[in-house]
Amino acid sequence: MMDENVKLTPDMFEKLPDSEKNNEQIAVEAKTYLQDAWNRFKKNKLALIGLVFLTIMILYAILGPILSQYSYDQQNLNLQHQLPSAAHWFGTDKFGRDIFVRVAYGARISLAIGFSAAAINLLIGITYGGIAGYFGGKVDMLMMRFVDIIYSMPDMLYVILIMLILGDNPFLAIIIGISITAWVNMARQVRTQVMTLKQQEFSLAAFVLGASRKRILFKHLIINCMGPIIVSVTLMVPSAIFTEAFLSFVGIGINAPQASWGTLANEARQLLERYPIETIWPLAAICLTMLSLNFIGDGLGDALDPKKK
Amino acid sequence: MSEEILKVEDLKTYFDVTKGLLSKKQIVKAVDGVSFTIYKNETFGLVGESGCGKSTLGRTIVKIYDPTGGKIEYKQKDITKIKGAELKQFRKSVQMIFQDPYASLNSRMTVGEIIREPMEIHHIYDTSEERDNRVRELLNIVGLKADHIRRYPHEFSGGQRQRIGIARTLALNPDFIVCDEPISALDVSIQAQVINLLEKIQKEMGISYLFIAHDLSMVKHISDRIGVMYLGNLVEVGPSDDVYHNPLHPYTKALLSAVPVPDPKLAKSKKRIVLEGELPSPINPPSGCRFRTRCPNATERCAKERPGMVQVGQRQVACFLYEK
User: Which of A3, A92, A151, B83 has the most neighbouring CB atoms within 10 Å?
Assistant: First the structure.
């Protein structure tokens, strides 16, 4: 510290000139959170490509069946196994149905299943994991043992059992079947994150300010683990699509003549040796959608973190 | 001095650190029977080495941790077990400034949102416009610019972030603030700025501080009275000049002999008391006087009995040396 004998008097100091008063000004213009996030997202070219492709896929799913002159179950036995042509862009299948329309129709079902399963997982997983992590102790112990029980059984078993019960509505059955187990991973992830974050001083500060538990949990803790959550949600969409594709592929998914990408791939597989081109369309749709979702997830994870410029 | 604002009596905060179901119960006695009083408009400095329980004490007072035993009185009212509306009222009046300005601000919120939050929680002002005006006013008070309102914390330096933290606590117009090592994470030049800001706020708003730190000279500078802690106990309490220039307790003497002196001539003549051994674990503290294992003046009595506070002039010392 300073020597006791040195006396500081006011005339030893001079006033800061006005010109230097703005030294602490930050020159960059302030933006809102979403503008900022969008700017960061745009810088990631792969994520942008992914977003463009996903948009095209969604438009294709919505508009494809409307604009096309064919319907997904309209058969034409004179035109079986056509190669791609001006009339049938992707060719036709074994009943002469237009594959372009069927893939678009499959996109509707597959994307709907993927997004709704992810949304349900997100909701349940965040709430459950957040509560377990925030309250800790006995609450956490009980909640996580329940998670362990669900986790210990193969999820295909649930899906198949639920399919049997809700057999007449396979679309709903698949969404419930996938959601009933997949939220477990999300819950675990959120719980770990919340447990570390709740010890941090900003969360203690909110507590001392008198914030309610709900406010601390949602406004302070969960928003801070949004990055990894978003990434795992975008990975969950393709995983749900894939589970549905698998179920349809083994024959317990969407019923014919309805089509999902999985059933389309399965039908085409049976004639793979003679008409290989028919498998390409649904497979390409699945692969490209998953790839673009992965890119988007990656980009969003970075974009939502204001620290990354 | 004037009326008392905070009175702590025999406060104990223990933590259960038992691992597994079957192992022996292990308890950390972080704060073990501490009593002191803080008066209105006063700054009470709390010093001690790391791990002595001073932060735990601060956090118990603002009710982040529940005390295991003892009593906390705030403005003559027992607040040890309050809940609900009473607790909310208490939170409005007693605030805390945290140690690490990089961890104490939510990085997903703008400065405006951070400072507005306490007003939203306690429903101060009705419109967001009024709140925004107050935020600008507060930013001005702590020496930041009103147009920083839409910035994110990571755009600021450590000192500026600490100012944001101070503005957040001031939003509630508190009467008492616990400063938990508010300057130890900052650079020396910035430390002085923040200390001056805290002093200015105290003068203008009549706030009392509990100032926790491990830098004795800084604590002496800002505090009216100082309390010295060792292993969960308060060993000496007194006016800051007295404690600083004429320490009584053997631990305070050792602590002060370690303060560096800027004058090399003086430094040579100064005798440094080097303590033997390590800080004992608070899970299994020594019997009797906590300091006896490292104390140069320890006697047999120190192992058997725990020394109470002895009044020496304006000071209180927990040591048998000063008993008559």
Answer: A92
Whether residues A204 and B110 touch (CB distance < 8 A) is answered with no
Any A CB within 8 A of B160 CB: yes
Contact of A20 with chain B, judged by CB distance below 8 Å, is answered with no
Tell whether B60 is within 8 A of chain A (Cβ): no
Q: What is the DSSP string of A285-306?
A: HHHHHHHHHHHHHHHHHHHT-T
Task: Please state, rounded to an integer, the average pLDDT across all residues of chain A.
Answer: 81
Burial of B223 (C-beta count, 10 Å sphere; 0-12/13-18/19+): buried
The model's pLDDT over A277-299, given as tens digits with 9 standing for 90+, comes to 878 888 888 888 888 988 888 88
Instruction: Say whether B121 and A220 touch across the interface (CB within 8 A).
Output: no
Measured between CA atoms, how close is B206 to chain A, in angstroms? 20
Cβ-based contacts under 8 A for chains A and B: 88
DSSP-assigned beta bridge partners for residue B46? B212, B227
Strands B315-317 and B310-312 turn out to be antiparallel
Please give the residue that has the higher pLDDT: either A99 or B315.
B315
C-alpha to C-alpha distance for B46 and B44, rounded to whole angstroms: 7
Q: Which domains does chain A have, with CATH numbers?
A: 33-66+104-303 (1.10.3720.10)
Domains and CATH numbers, chain B: 4-322 (3.40.50.300)
Please check whether residue A265 is in contact with residue A115, taking contact to mean a CB–CB distance below 8 angstroms: no
